[in-house]
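hey can u check if this looks right to u? its 476 residues, i copy pasted from the old doc so theres a chance i mangled smth
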Amino acid sequence: MDILIKAAQLIVALVILVTVHEFGHYIFARIFGVKVNRFYLFFNPYFSILRYNPKEGRLDFFARNGEPGKLSVKVGKPVADRPDGKATWRDTVYGLGWVPLGGYCDIAGMVDETKDASQLESTPQPWELRSKPAWQRLCVMVAGVVLNFVLAIIIYIGIAFHWGDDVVPLQAMTEGMDFSQEFRDSGFRDGDILLTLDGKPLDSKDYSLAWDMIQPGARVGVLRQGDTTEVVVSKELIGKIASKGKDFVPMSPRVPVYVAKVVSGEPAAHAGLLPGDRILTVGPDTVPSITEFLPALKAHSGDTVAMRLIRADGRPDVVSVGISDAGKIGIQMLSPVEIFDRQTIRYSFFESIPRGWEIGVDRLVSYVSSLKLVFTKEGAQSLGGFGTLGDLFPTSWNWYQFWQITAFLSIILAFMNIIPIPGLDGGYTLFLIVEMLTGRKPGDKFLEVVNTCGFVFLLLLLVYANGNDIYRFFIK
């Protein structure tokens, strides 16, 4: 069931992202009078789940490509071509494929990996993309990327307006943080209270805080045992973390030991512990947080020890508590949410606009800077496919997390598509920019060859990324 919920969230997110991306290409092609042959959500090798041909006035279900559907419904009357030959929305066949790996917008007069130059008319037609000025073709190519980034900004605006920011100031975590071994090797110590990053106060609302902290040479100011000091992050830290899985926790707040509930009849109840008491020591061991408290209980299993407390009313006290052979005293502890002073920041609609823009730009910059890891051994091993994407989503449907992840995926889709690799929007954009600078248009045959090479490269990359998923999930 968990896998199904994750898969459903991924598919819904892909439907939104792909539709918006391809609609960007479609709407700008239509603005410039370019004919769009097909507009498809998901790919349709051999057949389509759904296909609507407005010119023929027919809606087909489970139709093989190039053939009428076995189940067809008439939707309106057939419409002839316009007398002036101009393209209209009725020239487009709209469909739903069955392979949920993306989608496509088949634009007339555009050479891509799905068609070769011989399929184009020898003389460019007015309604073909290749007959349009370079700047119009450029707008059509980058429109999908732009709309994906705009979508991310809109989602972040909505998140800021509806949920606001619910944060715990780092300075409010009075016992500091617990760090992974990788962070400790880089100079951090358990109990450090984070203060500054490169001389600027740390802001809990900063979405890229964790990423910025692991950059080689980053200077993190901390409060350590009452004194301020600075940790200069080693260049090895980012590579070590890149190879970690989803469940890796680089750092977490140290949670003080506060009693939430005392179980009747257990040692804590006999000793007189009460809800709201804070436990400071277990015998000779100081326990500023749960990190030290649980091992201390285990170390004194079967003993009766003195525990120093601060009562709920602020009074210091010392009590003798028996510890069971299992290392238990019979209490429930307060969670971090109940201990730390959380801040909920609300935004009006107009305040949420700059906040959404700030988050979107921040996430884009962080993602772009993280791509350098791809060219390291650890980064290449961490590449993942659809399994990794699906694993980003929670096991229960949570709208806040769904929109956060969808917005981030929209940013990823936007940037990855603008990388100048033939077969991607960025490849076409590169050739168009060269054409605008030199005045020379690449030949259709040249575009056919480089796009095919780019498509093969992307296909191999897709196989490698999903192969990593199979290895991690089923073998490793």
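The mean pLDDT is 87.
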